[in-house]
Amino acid sequence: MRLWRVFIKSLREQARDLLTLSLSLILAPMFVFLYWLFFPSGGSTAYDAAVVNHDRPVAEIDAGSDLIDALHEVTYTDGQPILDVHIMENRAEAETKIKDRKIEVLLVIPEDFSETVHAFQSGEEVDPVPITFIGDLTNPYYAVAAVMANAGLETYIQFVTGEDRPILVEEIPLGDSAGRTEFEIYVPGMLMFSIVILVFEAAMVVAYEVESGTLKRLKITRVSTFELLGGISASVVLIGVIGLLLAIAAALALGFNSHGPLWVAILIGIITTISVIGVGLMIAAFSKTVSQAFIIANFPLVFFMFFTGVAFPIPGVTLFTIAGNPFGLYDFLPPTHAVVALGKVMTLGAGINEVVFELSALVILSILYFALGVWLFQRKHMRTS
After folding, report:
1. Residues with Cβ < 8 Å from 222, sequence gap 6 or more?
2. CA–CA distance from 143 to each of 53, 57, 291, 342, 381 (Å)?
3. What residue spans in the chain does CATH classification 3.40.1710.10 cover?
4. Which string of DSSP letters, residue by residue, matches 274-323?
5. Which residue among 153, 189, 266, 326 is least crowded, i.e. fewest CB within 10 A of its CB?
6. Architecture of domain 45-161
7. Residue 345 carries which DSSP code?
8. Which residues contact 150 (CB under 8 A, 6 or more apart)?
9. Backbone phi, psi, residue 74, to 5°
10. What secondary structure does DSSP assign to 120-164, as a single string?
């Protein structure tokens, strides 16, 4: 009964701070909407490639123009162009645009390109002609753009030489991974963002009880740690579920399509919320004021955002294996398993039986994080003087 009363009390207190509660609920749907704006019509990124064409046509062969046409024909599976090709006259101007990151890669076609192609087709021995690729290697988009431009170049060279590679590459995408737009690729991470952002809510709600003196009055009523933290945690879980549902609704309204059961995705979110609340309790244990809790909560949020796959993919650093499943350095952070599980469910159409390892790891870590948070809070604030 006391747990229920604490739960209702916590909900009422959070509802009084309507601005904070509203921001917590709409932040993830807002990010979903912004990502949809970044990648309009559900399309994919077109990388800017500049071409400086010095080639001089020979005997009705215009190899430079044909190569440019081949670059235009490098497309995604849905037919959208991968390269946005810009014809430029001045190499120095193009290099300036590279420095400004207005284009990703520059191809320079030499003057004797058509002459070399003509000589080869006439059976003459020719020296390889250099096609120059120029780019900023610190630009993460350069590698993709250069690979795609090189693919267009290879396609054209195979066409003019008539020489086919002695292998056939067949690509079989899993689930709907080939049909996913960039917006849809980012949705699972954005859904998890609606959960990890609750680290602020959990830490600040509990810290408020300490700062306002309410905790001292509650201790007089002999409320137990379980009743106090259980009631508060239940209210945060409820807010987390509402925020997750709003984010899912926003994604679906903007064209996202989950190929697996949404209830599994919601279950993943609820379990992850428990671990995030555990971190919030740890923060509250070392906080005397709400503002202090807010500042400290930024530290774990950075880890949740940038080392779990929420914001962008992370490289695996395997430490050991469990039942044949690699367990990496970042797998000690529960949201890591949640992001992988959401990707399997929503993109590959996996059911609950296919995310057993991720769910198991998530449950174990969430229990550990929550238990540690409860223990620290009890040790710091619930002991009687």
Report:
1. none
2. 21, 30, 43, 28, 53
3. 45-161
4. HHHHHHHHHHHHT-SSHHHHHHHHHHHHHHHHHSSSSSS-----EEEEET
5. 326
6. 3-Layer(aba) Sandwich (3.40)
7. H
8. 133
9. -80, 110
10. HHTT---PPPPPEEE--TTSHHHHHHHHHHHHHHHHHHHHHH-PP
The answer to whether 286 and 169 have CB atoms below 8 angstroms apart is no
d(Cα 371, Cα 207) in Å, to the nearest integer? 18
- Global pTM reads 0.72
- Cα 284 to Cα 202: distance, rounded to the nearest angstrom: 8
**Six token digits for residue 30:** 């807002």
Return the residue matching tokens 């529960």.
334
Contacts with 45 (C-beta within 8 Å, 6 or more apart), sequence order: 39, 141, 182
Question: Residue 175 is encoded by which pair of tokens?
Answer: 């689930």
| CA-angle at 380, arms to 375 and 385, nearest 5° | 120
By three-state DSSP, how is residue 117 classified? helix
User: pLDDT digit of tens for each residue in the chain (385 aa)?
Assistant: 677 877 887 778 777 777 777 777 887 788 788 878 776 554 567 889 999 999 999 888 899 999 999 999 988 766 788 899 999 998 999 988 888 888 999 999 999 999 988 888 888 887 888 889 999 887 878 888 888 888 888 888 888 777 655 544 454 555 665 556 777 878 888 899 889 999 998 999 888 888 888 777 776 777 777 788 888 899 999 999 999 999 999 999 988 888 889 999 999 999 999 999 999 999 999 998 999 999 999 999 999 988 888 877 776 677 888 887 888 888 899 999 999 899 889 888 888 998 999 999 999 999 999 999 999 988 887 765 4
